[in-house]
Task: structure prediction
Amino acid sequence: MPLLSFLVALAAVIAVAVLINSVVRLPDSIRPVVNAVFALIVVGMGLWLINTYLPMAESIKTILNILVVVATCVFVLQAVGLWDRVVAMSSSLWARITRPRPATEAKKVPESVEQH
Result:
């Protein structure tokens, strides 16, 4: 019975998404956000279905969940137009971390150590 409820809910979400994208006039700036919300709903439902009804080892299930969450985050960032900024920020941060540091002067040994 839960599987039937799942299919009915999925059909309702798809029907609403099709109606909103074809019938309702949305501004171009809002349409990607609405589509991202519908995608999040569908991905969540799919992940619930996989976690509930497909038998697999917990480690594989955890890896699958992490991959789906990361891919969904990338999709949402792309949908709202922030992905390019995130990539640019991570590139500049990585360049700053891996930049060669200038050579520093040799450390001077304190005179008290030299006498011993």
